């Protein structure tokens, strides 16, 4: 009996230690369209395809959903058994690979209540949480963390910079039942804090007392002008004076050009506007601080983190240049389990795709070098041919000159002989 009891306790401990996996889709099978539904609220939503992209560790295991059409909205979602995160840790994790070197587009997910009509999902559909990277030009490269609270979508007040390269990166959001959170990128903490402090869930705990005001005789001037200080008699000097080194040009004509005046220059003796020196204010009352009172509109909420219903995860986004691959979707209550899953992705998918890309880049580098070398050799051959042609032309010109010289000599000899014959006659 004791042994059975111990075994029972062991089974219970193991069961309690097992993480709750609310949703997991790593696209290991090529049947994603059975699980992900495209919204029918528009007829021109962009299409996804299942692919590992150009670089990968395992082409089948690393496949994910890739956007395929430029300048399109995308709207797909997948449902799961509805759950509430009350009293539990909520972990949302997925990977994003912008292998198109994205210039403007979303890379985030939305978590919806199970009541969402997936076929009618739009950008205006109410969601619980929106999380993930968003890039648009050099000015927007951030991680969104948006919570819906009492009908309002609340943006995080801190800046979290996202990754903007072409590699796979894993984004993790951890929301804890003590109203704290963590955002991790590739298992490294990118931001952490409290929900109440970093979002405007609640109004301020305190407000300025509307009944209080600064007393009329309150003097908050720390320094005042010295009433005994007087301006020196020689203080007043003009700011600008005629240039003493200037001379009237020799070609200046007073009748034509008018009366000549020297140009004005800064006066080195100018001291500016005189002000009395400052002294400590003997009547200084200190800095007046407006009294604060409890805000009557503030009501504490120790369940800011909690939602009654999660039931759908969706990709509702816009992309100017398509090519982003989404993969490794996970929702659980166990941060350690998510961390372990992320480590596996980093050590296999990420490491393997980097190795493949580095090999590709090296091959491309060698090809460029060979092409540059070939181009240089062809240029050298062309230059050599041009030099040879020029040499041949020079030799032909020299031959022609020799022939012209010989003909000239023969002509001169003939003239001399003819002249000599005439003399003999």
From TrEMBL:
Residue spans of biased composition, Basic and acidic residues class = 206-250, 351-377
Kindly indicate whether the keyword Cell wall biogenesis/degradation belongs to this entry: no
| Record region (Disordered) | 206-253, 351-425
CC per GO annotation? cell surface; cortical granule; endoplasmic reticulum lumen; endoplasmic reticulum membrane
Q: List the InterPro entries hit by this protein, alphabetically.
A: Calret/calnex (IPR001580), Calret/calnex_CS (IPR018124), Calreticulin (IPR009169), Calreticulin/calnexin_P_dom_sf (IPR009033), ConA-like_dom_sf (IPR013320)
Predominantly, its location class is other
Annotated Gene Ontology MF terms?
A: calcium ion binding; carbohydrate binding; unfolded protein binding
The protein's matches in Pfam families, at most eight in alphabetical order, are given as: Calreticulin
Q: Which cysteines are joined by disulfide bonds?
A: 104-136
> Which residues does the annotation say bind an alpha-D-glucoside?
108, 110, 127, 134, 316
> What is stated as this protein's family in its record?
Belongs to the calreticulin family.
Q: What is this protein called?
A: Calreticulin
**Organism expressing this protein natively:** Ciona intestinalis (Transparent sea squirt)
